[in-house]
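hey m, so remember when u said the C-alpha coordinates were messed up on ur end? i reran from scratch. heres the input so u can diff it against urs
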Amino acid sequence: MGKIYSKKAQASKNLKPKKEVVSFLLNYSKALTVVKIDDKNFEIIAN
Protein backbone atom coordinates (compact mmCIF):
# COMPACT_ATOMS: atom_id res chain seq x y z
CA MET A 1 0.00 0.00 0.00
CA GLY A 2 2.87 2.36 0.78
CA LYS A 3 4.29 1.92 -2.71
CA ILE A 4 1.07 3.14 -4.34
CA TYR A 5 1.16 6.50 -2.57
CA SER A 6 4.89 7.05 -2.91
CA LYS A 7 4.89 7.01 -6.71
CA LYS A 8 4.48 10.24 -8.62
CA ALA A 9 1.42 10.49 -10.79
CA GLN A 10 2.40 10.57 -14.42
CA ALA A 11 0.51 13.34 -16.16
CA SER A 12 0.04 13.25 -19.88
CA LYS A 13 1.61 16.22 -21.63
CA ASN A 14 -0.58 15.88 -24.69
CA LEU A 15 -3.81 17.18 -23.17
CA LYS A 16 -5.90 18.62 -25.96
CA PRO A 17 -9.58 19.33 -25.31
CA LYS A 18 -12.16 18.67 -27.98
CA LYS A 19 -13.46 21.60 -30.00
CA GLU A 20 -16.93 20.98 -28.61
CA VAL A 21 -15.70 21.42 -25.03
CA VAL A 22 -13.88 24.64 -25.81
CA SER A 23 -16.89 25.98 -27.68
CA PHE A 24 -19.22 25.10 -24.79
CA LEU A 25 -17.01 26.82 -22.22
CA LEU A 26 -16.61 29.96 -24.33
CA ASN A 27 -20.35 30.21 -24.96
CA TYR A 28 -21.08 29.65 -21.27
CA SER A 29 -18.66 32.38 -20.22
CA LYS A 30 -20.18 34.80 -22.75
CA ALA A 31 -23.69 34.13 -21.43
CA LEU A 32 -22.72 34.44 -17.74
CA THR A 33 -23.37 37.77 -16.03
CA VAL A 34 -22.55 38.48 -12.39
CA VAL A 35 -24.58 41.23 -10.74
CA LYS A 36 -23.45 42.56 -7.37
CA ILE A 37 -26.15 44.05 -5.15
CA ASP A 38 -24.98 45.24 -1.74
CA ASP A 39 -22.92 42.33 -0.40
CA LYS A 40 -24.51 39.61 -2.55
CA ASN A 41 -23.53 38.30 -5.97
CA PHE A 42 -26.13 36.97 -8.41
CA GLU A 43 -25.06 34.82 -11.35
CA ILE A 44 -27.36 35.03 -14.37
CA ILE A 45 -27.15 32.81 -17.43
CA ALA A 46 -28.64 34.58 -20.45
CA ASN A 47 -29.55 31.95 -23.05
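this time it looks ok to me. Residues 16-47 form one domain. if urs says something different then somethings off w ur setup not the seq
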